[in-house]
């Protein structure tokens, strides 16, 4: 929702320092799952993920959260620092922004092994399904660097697999319909995995590595494939470009900018939108993504 007041409340939880058992009520409230003898701030990790969950809905909110996470990484408790890479992954799933990749790359060499495990996995999630060449090169370097450490190498291999998800045709991004609708199933799948990474040593690197299959709930194709009314593949030319926000503008404003013309099937990157180049066919759906059925335009003359 991008609700700033909720983010503020969660930041208050993140800024507590624990010396004694004064905050037992909050601990019960935030995280019943970790009732073990975990350190006092274990619920702060969930609060960090909460900030990302609120801020992921819009561009400006996620930019502001990015700066906040930078502060938490520098000045936070160890539990906070372990959760921040996961939160960065949640803010830009399948959207490999350079500043986030650089931050995660820096913390993949951290002194705290759990921070480095989480950072490496987060790199995979940020670039999931994008085939990003720069990220692939980073991960190859990490694989050489961690060749002797099986746990880190396991994370690097996971991240490499995520980067080339479906050979670059799938995405983990939970938003669809021009980033207007959020798939709650997809977010639940991502959260299942990220919450289990808060205790990466005992869960993912322990006996419960199968929790990673939760990511399957978030996978969806990022290609645009067009069919005719008999569901036969129908190659048409489409314009693909950066999506422009045209809500509330009068007339027929341009919905994309800086477009290139391709023939379907095409891949849509993060923040891109497609429109048909000619009026020969009419789409049955107003939003062109995934699998789209086209019907002949009766008023079209060559």
From TrEMBL:
GO biological process terms held by the UniProt record: proteasome-mediated ubiquitin-dependent protein catabolic process
In terms of domain of life, where is this protein from? Eukaryota
Question: Which positions fall inside the 26S proteasome non-ATPase regulatory subunit RPN1 C-terminal domain?
Answer: 247-300
Cite the entry's keywords alphabetically.
Proteasome, Repeat
Write out the ranges of the annotated region (Disordered): 18-41
What protein does this entry describe? Answer: 26S proteasome non-ATPase regulatory subunit RPN1 C-terminal domain-containing protein
Q: Please report a single Pfam family linked to this protein.
A: RPN1_C
Does Repeat show up as a keyword for this record?
A: yes
Q: Which organism is it from?
A: Aquarana catesbeiana
- What's any one GO cellular component for it? nucleus
Regions of compositional bias (Basic and acidic residues) in chain numbering: 18-37
């Amino acid at each position: 929702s991008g609700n700033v007041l909720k983010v503020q409340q969660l930041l208050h939880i993140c800024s507590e320092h624990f010396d004694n058992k004064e905050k037992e009520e909050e601990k019960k409230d935030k995280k019943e799952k970790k009732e073990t003898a975990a350190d006092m701030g274990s619920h702060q990790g969930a609060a960090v993920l909460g900030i990302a969950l609120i801020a992921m809905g819009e561009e400006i909110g996620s930019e502001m959260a990015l700066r906040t996470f930078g502060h938490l990484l520098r000045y936070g408790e160890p539990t906070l620092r372990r959760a921040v890479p996961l939160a960065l992954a949640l803010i830009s799933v399948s959207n490999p922004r350079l500043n986030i990749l650089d931050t995660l790359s820096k913390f993949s060499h951290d002194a705290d092994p759990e921070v480095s495990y989480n950072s490496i996995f987060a790199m995979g999630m940020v670039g999931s399904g994008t085939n990003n060449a720069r990220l692939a090169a980073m991960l190859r370097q990490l694989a050489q660097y961690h060749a002797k450490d099986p746990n880190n190498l396991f994370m690097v291999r996971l991240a490499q697999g995520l980067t080339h998800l479906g050979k670059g045709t799938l995405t983990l991004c939970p938003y669809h319909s021009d980033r207007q609708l959020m798939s709650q199933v997809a977010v639940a799948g991502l959260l299942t995995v990220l919450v289990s990474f808060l205790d990466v040593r005992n869960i993912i690197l322990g006996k419960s590595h199968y929790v990673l299959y939760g990511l399957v709930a978030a996978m969806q194709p990022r290609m645009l494939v067009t069919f005719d009314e008999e569901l036969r593949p129908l190659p048409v030319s489409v314009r693909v470009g950066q999506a422009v926000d045209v809500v509330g503008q009068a007339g027929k404003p341009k919905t994309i900018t800086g477009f290139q013309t391709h023939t379907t099937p095409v891949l849509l990157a993060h923040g891109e939108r497609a429109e048909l180049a000619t009026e020969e066919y009419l789409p049955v759906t107003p939003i062109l993504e995934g699998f789209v059925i086209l019907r002949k335009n009766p008023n079209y003359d060559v």
